[in-house]
Specification:
The chain is mostly helical. The chain contains 9 helices and no strands. Helix 3 runs antiparallel to helix 4 and helix 3 runs parallel beside helix 7.
Length: 201
């Protein structure tokens, strides 16, 4: 068990270092040797964790998106109110975003051009599905009367995700506010703008 935990920890380190180098140097400019040097290991040892640099990028991208999608789907399927679901969704999105900050700082266009065609198509589909789940949460709030009926879910979701994703450029884990506090501020801001006049206390 200890050996398995040690291997998983090392694997997480490999992926974390690779994501950071991809973000700072660019995917194409980062060599396998760069990753190995950063980790203090032989380049050949990296192939224990992945078959190629392309496979590494694929695993980083698909794993992060799948985690976010699964988390959001669980929130949508819960018995919480639409407002509570929105609050949880914002909190989870910010958590996963900061957990994988280096990955999300990689140029999006470079990622899509670097992935094989099948993975690029799958990635785009999963991203659209992720936004659709957000839209479903907003629509549920409209249907229950918690949110205003004149809302355009797609525009609201674009604005909400844009607001959350902007934290990548300025949020500091050691700064004045925690990720959780930022989530609370964003939640209050969004719900105050979305809620129906009939539900305003």
């Amino acid at each position: 068990m200890k050996k398995q935990n040690s291997q998983k920890k090392r694997e997480a380190e490999v992926y974390a270092v690779a994501a950071r180098l991809f973000a700072t140097k660019g995917f194409h400019a980062t060599r396998m040797q760069d990753i190995a040097d950063e980790l203090g290991m032989q380049k050949g040892s990296l192939y224990y964790y992945f078959n190629s640099k392309d496979d590494l990028l694929k695993e980083l991208v698909t794993g992060s998106i799948q985690e976010a999608q699964d988390s959001l789907q669980t929130i949508l399927d819960s018995d919480q109110s639409p407002k509570q679901k929105l609050a949880l969704a914002i909190t989870e999105h910010l958590r996963i975003l900061q957990q994988n900050a280096d990955l999300h700082l990689i140029n999006a266009q470079e990622i899509l051009m670097s992935l094989d065609e099948e993975t690029a198509v799958t990635t785009n589909t999963r991203l659209k599905n992720y936004e659709n789940i957000w839209s479903a949460i907003v629509q549920e709030g409209i249907d229950t009367g918690d949110f205003r009926p004149d809302l355009d879910q797609k525009i609201i979701v674009k604005a909400l995700l844009g607001l959350c994703n902007s934290t990548l450029t300025w949020f500091e884990p050691t700064g004045r506010l925690s990720n959780q506090q930022i989530a609370q501020i964003y939640t209050e801001l969004m719900i105050n703008g979305l809620q129906s006049a009939n539900t305003v206390s």
